[in-house]
Amino acid sequence: MSRRGPRHFAKLAFALSDDDDPADADTARFRDRLLAADPGDELLTLWRRKLTAWDFEQSPAWSATAPRTPERRAEIHDKLAFGADLRKALDAVIPVHVEPGPVTISREFEPWYTREQASNRSFYWTSYERLLRRKGWSDAAVSSLDEAAHAVVERLADPTRDTPYGARGLVVGYVQSGKTANFTGVTAKAIDAGYRLVIVLGGTLNLLRGQTQRRLDMELIGQENILGAADPNDPDALVGIDYQDDEDWPAKFVSFGARPSMLGAFDIERLTSRDRDYMALERGISALEFEKPDRTRPLYEPANLHAARARVMVVKKNKSVLEKLVTDLKKIGPILGEIPALIIDDESDQASVNTTDPKKWEDGKVTRTAINGQISKLLKLLPRAQYVGYTATPFANVFIDPGDEEDLFPRDFLISLPRPAGYMGVQDFHDLDTVEDGEGEAEKKHVRGIYDSTGDRLQEALDAFVLTGALKLYREARGLPPFRHHTMLVHESVRMAEHAVLAGRIETMWRNAAYTGPEGHARLAALFDRDFHEHADGSLPTPADYSDLKPFVSGARRLINQGGGPVIVVNGDSERDYAQPDLDFDRTPNVWKILVGGTKLSRGFTVEGLTITYYRRTTQQADTLMQMGRWFGFRPGYRDLVRLYIGREETLGRGRNAKTVDLYEAFEAICRDEELFRDELARYAPLVDGRPQVTPAQIPPLVAQHLPWVKPSARNKMFNAELVEVRSPGTPIEPAAYPLDSEMTERNTGRWKPVLTALQGTPTTCLLLPDATSPLSRSFQAATTVISHAQLLSVLSSLEWEDGNVLAPHLAYLSQLDGRLAKVDDWLVIAPQRTQRNRIEATVLGRGPFSLFRRSRQSGRLSFGRISGLEHRLYAQQLASRNGSAFPGGSTPVLGAAQGVVLLYPVVDAAQDDEVKAVAATGAAAADHITMAFTVIPPKAAVDTEQQLVRFRTKDSSRPDAVIVNAL
């Protein structure tokens, strides 16, 4: 697509028309046509596609406005010379897509992959783009993928450059969120640009590797490249050709109409197939002998490069497979130095990271794990190879030793993909903002806790599986597209013997469930009434009562039973465990099954149609736990039916070391870490004066400041970049890791005594105006006072912390708000009260009484979750945004432009209100039981004109470019 930008529409239309002169009425007719158009109207579709592309374009030559903003759209209208009525009509039928785009942290790079160049060579990308639209992708979704894939490719080395350079990058997506679509788009753009060898490391199982191969073959490589010279109408010629037994061949495989080389492009040669991993170069070394029209020049010269075929292989992350590939490449010789190559590592934090202990290295020589060693050899053999890792759990990659030049640290770029539209993720299962009283909406809708008091709820989960299957059939009968797959995942243990026992138990429960008898219908009716009817999506067909659903239960039961039984066990180390037909979601028409398994059902394995999850397995590894969140993903037409049955009181460990853990809370803690990581990247991604604020090498110390369980070191070395200052104008500063030591806690509480004294008095009614979170006004009571900037700084500077001063980079900023950086006169301190019904009060240090708040620390950490309540934080930010204008209702002081807000909470570390009541039993809370937790929100104006938000210091000034220094 050309990206020359919008131009005067009427003049262009006149130049292309046969009319003698343009008429004002033309735009009026255009406006009327747009307003009357059906959703599928060709004119509307054309304009939606064009406007969306202009809205999304990053840093175009024709605009200085930010993408995805009303300002960008207004500039587009200006350049098109559209009048007010037409602008209004277009914005009504094609709204500005303001959802965030990809977030990029990058070193400065040499621009080479311009939009014009991408447009000039776009054969495979254009084909892929057309396919996505045929699959029903919206214009916004296609433009978002285009934007993210372009951001990756432009940061790779120019494939035609004389001096070889291998970029290293990381793309962070969400669990089961469509990362494959992104790297397919990256591959398409990269080979169009000139990359001629693509190696995709596609999982650790043949099944996963085969799924990736099929996806690339179907959506990118296409029928003509798969067939080669074979005649598709000659059965004899098709013997041995892939996919002849695939029900989607050829209809759903992309077709170019002829061999790409016959259409002025280039062909792709597959070096692996659906069922054959890399064994050896099937045609020997000649398979990598590239055609060069001018043999006196290297392959990377444009005249040679763009005439050559691309080679693509999808390789399993297996030591012996990678060793064969490395051995074969070594035989090829000097040509390897001429091949622009791209290595894409799917699930790059699995097996690829070097996990050997540096203390055991001999003579300081790096010892590598098997897969890491082979990838390192590949990169050394291919000096023009670019490495791009893909993962949803990035910490293992981010904390690779950046000083190991042969390892995989993403030194050049890190790109965080936006949450896709329709994706069901963290926010759908966890209320990440503190809910003061009871459970939040996400938990009510989708989470069903398993406690000692509830029993194991396994029968209820099975009933939910049958009931949701019937609801899917009911919705199909009322016009929704067919639900091809419907699955339940049961994950209780890592032990294979226990899987067999559990599967047998489920089989027995299934036989005794009587789903077509009175007893079974009574259970299903009760479950429907108390759960699924209450939380149904009103925009989707849902029966008014169970009697309308009852006829569909037998159909659901039959589909689940087909093929011999309802249960499949998926475990073991053998590939045969994954060769079961009902596990191949691509080739099996309908998979309606209960899957029982362990680790093998986690990373990389997409359980299609997953609706009910029963999860009780414990683990102490954060990335392992996150990857087991198979309930995240796309659930079109049935997201309101998704349920997570999860252990809330599970035993971890044995004997005296045993403890009880809440798996839902454990997931939430990890989710908070992931979201915080993304938020941090987004905050520091904007360029300042055209240069990055943060480079990938500076991410580890930045992230380590916020994740208490991460130490700012890479094995035996410390990062050379030290975080010195974080500036937060208008943004909440909210420490989460408070001391566990009771004496330290008591001293810290004492330091707040002057503020607590000033807070005594009549409570204020704080009125929160309607906003995006609620159309209604809300209010809460709070004690308030105003303190000077010097007084607040004195308190904050005196606080003690157990694991390093987590507030230090923020204090460096706050201390300059005395006029050096900006001027803050004073701070409005707000100490909220809980609702009257749930209020627990006590004096603190003889002051008050104050409302005590319950917060619980994340499992095994110093950190609480979110400290401030959502309504409290929104109120404070509304105050800050009013810039001195009166606030309707209540008696809160007007906040001036040079005033900030502090939310102050006397917190009791407790899981239940009864524990808080015990602390307040005498009416006076002991200071060593109270953590004075706080949120500081500086004024938006509290920053200088440079707008720099983060500042680092090099620890070893003699080596400013080093990302690490040896630890002392």
Overview of this structure, please?
This protein is an alpha/beta fold and 968 residues long. Helix content is 33%, strand content 16%. Strand 27, helix 29 and strand 28 (899-909) form a beta-alpha-beta unit. The two termini are 55 Å apart. Residues 709-718 have low confidence and may be disordered.
Major sheet: order of its strands? 1-8-2-7-6-3-5-4
What class do helices, strands and sheet pairing give? alpha/beta
Number of helices: 30
Helix fraction? 25-40%
Q: Report the sheet with the most strands, covering strand number, pairing sense and barrel closure.
A: 8 strands, mixed
Radius of gyration, Cα only, in angstroms? 30 Å
Mean pLDDT: 86
Number of DSSP strands? 32
Amino- and carboxy-terminal Cα gap: 55 Å
Percentage beta strand: 15-25%
Enumerate the spans where pLDDT stays under 50 for 5 or more consecutive residues.
Answer: 709-718
Backbone shape: globular
